[in-house]
Amino acid sequence: MIPEKSVKIRGKSSTLRACTVLVLTLSLSVASMLRAENSETLPSFTLPDLDGKQWSSEDFKGKPVIFDFWATWCTVCEETIPKLSELSKKYKNKGLTVVGISVDKGSQRKIQRTAKKWGIDYLVLHDKENTLGSVFGFSGIPSVYVFDRKGKRTLAMPGYDPDHDEQLDAAAEKAL
Fold first, then answer.
1. Rounded to an integer, what distance in angstroms lies between the CA atom of residue 108 and that of residue 125?
2. Torsion angle (degrees, nearest 10) of CA 73, 77, 82, 88
3. Rounded to whole angstroms, how far apart are CA atoms 99 and 121?
4. DSSP letter for each residue of 114-174
5. Minimal CA–CA distance to 91: which of 7, 5, 174, 1?
6. Nearest to 118 by CA among 170, 68, 49
7. Full-model pTM
8. Over the chain (176 residues), what is each successive 10-residue block's mean pLDDT?
9. Burial class of residue 47 (count of CB atoms within 10 Å of its CB; 0-12, 13-18, 19+)
10. Are 119 and 85 contacting, i.e. CB atoms less than 8 angstroms apart?
């Protein structure tokens, strides 16, 4: 932190403090993006599903998998569901698993209701404390990650834009 006396220039200390905070925030955002870009393999984790069963990253070993981080309050997250459901059905016979990971702090019951309402027909895990945000390297949702059978990441997609569906299709196929 910069000492207060070193930034007082003609009464502009609050402006300089704001600029310092902005620079630090941008630096952390860039570091987060770089960490996500450097996270090439499936991280280790254990999370419960909505029935309380524990799932580990080991359960997905040797399988192509798509992870979608979302929350019940995220309207953009809802837009990803039809595409992910389509991919799940299209490639299920080839071993692809789609996993939604809710980062809601609320109850599993609320997540179950939203999953049903939104038509989520694939596995949903609950990361109540958002422990995987820093592990996967994302700072916002939705965030989609595709991993191949060897656990190598083939796509990291922050946010969602239907114009990128072809990119998601190609990453899913490559993961097979």
1. 9
2. -110
3. 10
4. HHHHHT--SEEEE-TT-THHHHHT-SSSSEEEEE-TTSBEEEEEES--GGGHHHHHHHHHH
5. 174
6. 68
7. 0.76
8. 44 44 36 47 94 95 96 94 95 95 92 95 95 88 95 93 90 93
9. buried
10. yes
